[in-house]
Queue: 3 jobs
Job 1
Amino acid sequence: MRRLAILSWFMLFVLLAAVRFAGSGLILASVSAPYGARIINALGVLMAGAAALLLDRLVRTFYWNGYLRYKRGRETPVVMQVLLTIALVALGVSIGLYFEAGVSFAGLLTASGATALLLGIALQAGIADVFSGLSVNLNGSVGIGDWLTIYSPKFSKPLFGRVQSIALRTTFLRLDDGRRLMIPNHVLTSNPVINHSRPLGAKRLSVEVPIARHFPAERAVGILLAEAYRAVRTRPLSRQHDPEVLIDRFSRDATFLHVRFYADLEESEPQIARSIMAAALNRALQRHGVPEPVRLMEFVAPRGALRDEIGEVRDALARVPIFENILNASEIETLVTTCRARSIAAGTTFIRQGEAGRSMFVLLDGAAHVSIVLPDGETREVAVLAAGDIVGEMSLMTGAPRTTSVTSLTEMRVLEVTNQAMERLLAAEPGLLERFSNVLAVRQSQLSEIASTSSQRQTLQRDILAQIRKFFSRAFG
């Protein structure tokens, strides 16, 4: 369709040129003076205008549509296209008038000065919009596809939306609820505007999290930071910068925390990114029993710093997947007496791939990332662990070398379960061997996705059972 338009303008240009130059003699002979010469001059001016419009059509087709839109993925604002068309036509007509009638462009400007003044006064608001749109495009501060927040006393609250197009007088925004808003261009240049899309790259967002005032703020910061590290591994959230958790303020009943993180706004709206992070943080708060602020007086059991360490260890062990529904209360108590929580500094690799392992870690607070070194030497992150997760269970039960490396992302508190503690359990209750091998086989098959049939799972369970028997052979004399 665009190529057909180019061909039409080209044919018009050729026709006007042919009549102007080849048919000038016939026109002069057929039309009395001075009208014949004026017709020829008018044809020359029209020919120059047609040449300008042909050039405009070529720019639209091959540069704005062919290069910018399809190759660069960028839209050209309407105001730029219209202004270029006006400029080319004005230039073409001026050239035609100069060669055909000897009228210079400066003369045209002088003659139209008074008219332009009157029009400028009458169309002051419209001209302001046009030049505002032009300035916005020339300085590159706003483009099609950008997310904007516009502050103006004319609005009851700041407007947030995505630029769909920029016309001569109006910028069109799509609001986050799907509605389309038309804003005069001068609003963009006369009011504060936040462009969330520029410069390119991930942008920082934040989520406010209120918790009960009596809950230790430092512990809440650790829980939220660990979960934020895990959440930013999910798109459209970004790992470009580490997340942060800041204590913002206190009230009589609540402590307000701000979780700051980064998201790629080219992939998603800010509100969706905040929702993803808020949902993850809410799950973490519920998992750890962090209380919400309350305005009514209530009596609650001591939590957080008032909780004894033995109770914390007992609760953590009871939630471990390989112990759950296998160990009874007395067997859990046996483990409690042999396990203690310990702290790990941020940036510490406490499990190294290939090293011999004889223990398992239960994460109480903080976050860690799991990585693996591939055969070609590349190190790849495969998971992020947060409070409540476990790592190293196969080394604990079979003595197998560590298959991954685990490094703390934040300060951490972990519970280490050693093979000596497990020996006491297995010596007292040999029947646990079968149950542990079944749980480990299911867990291992879920992680590796190699056991897709019942026979394969049974084979994997027998192999793990044999490894456990060999590793804990001392427990059975």
Note: The chain has four domains: 2-111, 138-195, 204-287, 309-428.
Job 2
Amino acid sequence: MTAAQILDITSNHTRFAGYKVDPTRGERISRVSSEWFSRPDDQRYLSLSDLHTSVRERAECSRTRTVETNAIRVEATRDNAERMSLILPGASQPVAPTHWSFGQLSSIVGAPPAYLRQLPAALAAINLQYGLSSSRTEQLKTLEIEDGRVELRAVTSPDYGRIFDHELVEAVRLLAGDGTGDTRWKVPGVMDWSNGTYNPNVDITKDTTTLYASDRDVFVFLVDDLNPIEAGRLKNGDADLYFRGFYAWNSEVGAKTLGIASFYLRAVCQNRNLWGVEDFEELTIRHSKYAASRFAHEAAPALARFANSSPMPFINGVKSARQQIVARTDEDRTNFLQKRGFSKADSAKIIDAVLAEEDRKPESLFDFVQGITAVARRKPHQDDRLTLEGKAKRLLAA
């Protein structure tokens, strides 16, 4: 088996029990785990079809309009003194702001939303009305949804370039089908730490799914873990196996950007931490005036290119880094790292990390990259960790 070989473990149409990986190498990324921990059951979906149906129906019940700021009227709800509503120009009935849109509206007029929420509705309405009447923001764009009653889901500037959540999910579905194994892209399996085996075949449940949507956003994480890629050998002679993955996110109400991250990784654990990540790339698009055009011409094609591309450039890059000897003596190692901005203390830690993992000191470019990411994983502060990981990435790309 060569270093450029992709292992097809699905050719016999049986459920594969798993394969050995070394998750101690590369980066550990917790972004998906943060999503997994924070999502209640009603935000978890078992297929891309279900997810798409939900966010698409929401969009179909929504409408946008641009209104004059000083023409908005705020009043306490007559039948509930603890709530307020907005009278928008051209609206046939009062519109109730959601928690999110109330915060957006308050921030736009320069009022602290946390403070206004503590006030009685009538008093909060007076303060908000004054802010709207005196605001220098002449126009606002609203996103309203009618589902029994009319709710205000978002308030943004007129130039806000909205990309609906279902548009992102549709782009993912074109590549991944249902995300349940009907294509090569699927919800990930789970790492078995007891024997160092990654099992790609795990039933998709509310507890294992990585397909999420709330009233504010959508998040999708999928992998191609039935087709592991060999890129070199470990110190014990076993294949160093990776598989491809990507996650994507969006918020049609302005809670976050649209973004796509692609990478190679060695394992995903039960709580959805990503282990052994290499070649991490991220593209983000702010919801500015031309966001929809950028999504159509940049983000969606970039996702398609990664999903359908050959892993050979990655494999060859790893192979080249393994073969590129950059240091043979202790002096060479120290000079190599310090010339690239590493402190004396971090240089010693990097060399020791490789010695601990490989039973030898670093010699190749790949050795140093693995040592840097090992030290980065131990950094307690995220900024320090990201700085080191960034240096490792630039070193490998040089």
Note: The CA atoms of residues 187 and 307 lie 14 Å apart.
Job 3
Amino acid sequence: MDGGVPTAIAAGERLTRELRRAWAKGQRAATPLDCHETWTPAPERDPIALLEQQAAERVPELVPIRHGRMLASPFSYFRGAALPMAADLAGTPTSGITTQLCGDAHLSNFGFFGSPERHLVFDVNDFDETLPGPWEWDVKRLATSFEIAARENGYTSKQRASIVRRSVRSYREAMRNFANQSMLEVWYARLDIDELLPEFQSLLDPKRTPAVWRAVSKARAHDSLDAFSKLAEIVDGEARIVHNPPLIVPVEHFVENTDRAMAMQVLGTLLDRYLETLLPDRRHLLEQYRFAHFARKVVGVGSVGTEAWIALFVDHDHGTPLFLQVKEAQASVLEAYVGPSAFENHGQRVVVGQRLMQAATDIFLGWERIKRFGVIDRDYYLRQLRDWKGSADVAGMTAEGMDLWARMSGWTLARAHARAGDRIGIASYLGKSDTFDNAVAQFAVTYADQNERDYASLQSAVEQGRLEAEMGM
């Protein structure tokens, strides 16, 4: 044995199913399921200091926009507070079983997008913080997000508890099913909207779950043509991204003493390097498009302040548009608590984690490292900007709709963890009872209370001038 881990596991050997089950059940005795409800704030805890730490590594003029978006509501704060929660989770009990984590598994980071086969699927869709770590951390962040969102929607305490427990129960039961399947069956498992599992299909209803139903319809309309109508225009016969500062700023507005043609040439070279990270068939496909324009675009909540760009391409033969999103990948918020990434390039870290956890990954997913106009080394990953992508309107969800979202999210997170980690060990640790479900539901209540206090601290920090915030952006 090595620190409680079987020597064979520590050495990287593959143990039998029976030994993994036995070891995981032993871990349940050492770390009982009901202890997962426990969390006490550390005496030195300062979430605002952690936000300041992140701000120091971001684009200065965009940081107030990030804080402003976090001030929209306690749930919006929670979306941007992955780092404070990672610090808090580091002090909670774990089973000793790890997997690839999403790292920011809140309910708005689950949604719909198009698979390479042009099916609409439901999956995790944000991997900026992905890193190997304790599987419980993703489950607790997901469950807490439902508690916070349900509070904002005015659900009763009974409804909230039911929804939160549903998300954890869905995870536990799905993991148990995956533990009894072959690895290939697990790898192919996915929530295809056209072929939903029966337990989800009966609940997708325009009257009972209207927000989820609308999300499915809207996702199919979100593609590059739709993006072009909102983000681009034709100027002197050429496709150009609109100038809408500070949210959308074309590249030429960042380059001093350099004409547009030279800036575009430099960016074209950078995109050529990204092509080298794609499979040959995807590279061939992208080469059928001509690079047309480039702009910085502010996106999301938690990622605001990192470098995020959009690249516009045009089909050589038909002139139809294609948008790629170019997102900066900084060190994961988990690194300080689980150790550094095995990948030197954080863009590669994101891509590898996404490919490992997602059932169907964007065909243009790749990475690169560049100097921003010869000044700063930054890591990036690239993907399509809109590819049938859609997420439910949380504020517009009925309680039944949020319950359905909890079911799908829990199932999907279990599938992602089962692909990347020891599904047999996790399932054996969780067992058949609802003890873990109830424990995490209580944790979610406790942490949601803390989240409200942290949200109030952010409000005070802005009022006192400690942080800057720009509202309405």
Note: Residues 1-25 form one domain.
